[in-house]
């Protein structure tokens, strides 16, 4: 297993963990999404599909793997931006485990994004 695959798996795992917690925290209310839980779940179908598809591309060493690495790396950065900067709520996403997931996710996301960008260029 190469390092790009390893960081992709770590980042995707942390993203999925964050999304599980997002259901617990009722993120559709925080972000004021219409349709509540139904649209929140439907929104995650393509997200999860892309994560799994991306892993195949990264593992098979396709040319598309770097694009998937960029997208997934960016996905690892977004939870930090949303919950710690733009839509910060003291009562939400502030458990120790939440912070471990969010800060680990931004770290793996940045590493994945920069690695993918480096190899793409």
Structure description:
With 121 residues, this protein is mainly α. The chain has one domain. 80% of the residues lie in helices and 0% in strands. The protein has five helices and no strands. Helix 1 packs antiparallel against helix 5 and helix 4 packs antiparallel against helix 5. It starts with a helix and ends with a helix. The mean pLDDT is 93. Keywords: Membrane, Transmembrane, Transmembrane helix. InterPro entries: DUF6713.
User: What's the assembly state of these chains?
Assistant: single chain
Query: Describe the biggest sheet?
Result: none
Strand content: under 5%
End-to-end gap: 22 Å
Total helical elements = 5
What is the rounded Rg?
15 Å
Secondary-structure-based class equals mainly alpha
Instruction: Please mark out the parts with pLDDT under 50 across 5 or more consecutive residues, or reply none.
Output: none
Order of helices and strands: HHHHH
Structural domains: how many: 1
* Total beta strand runs: 0
* Helical coverage, percent range: over 70%
Average per-residue pLDDT, rounded, comes to 93
Question: What is the overall silhouette?
Answer: globular
Keywords: Membrane, Transmembrane, Transmembrane helix
Pfam family, one: DUF6713
InterPro entries: DUF6713
């Amino acid at each position: 297993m190469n390092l790009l695959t390893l960081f992709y798996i770590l980042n995707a795992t942390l993203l999925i963990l964050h999304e599980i917690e997002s259901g617990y925290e009722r993120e559709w209310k925080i972000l004021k999404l219409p349709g509540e839980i139904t649209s929140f779940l439907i929104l995650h179908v393509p997200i999860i599909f892309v994560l799994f598809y991306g892993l195949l591309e990264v593992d098979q060493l396709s040319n598309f793997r770097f694009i998937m690495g960029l997208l997934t790396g960016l996905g690892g950065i977004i939870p930090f931006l949303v919950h710690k900067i733009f839509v910060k709520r003291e009562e939400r996403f502030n458990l120790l485990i939440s912070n471990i997931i969010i800060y680990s996710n931004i770290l793996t996301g940045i590493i994945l994004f920069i690695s993918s960008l480096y190899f793409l260029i």
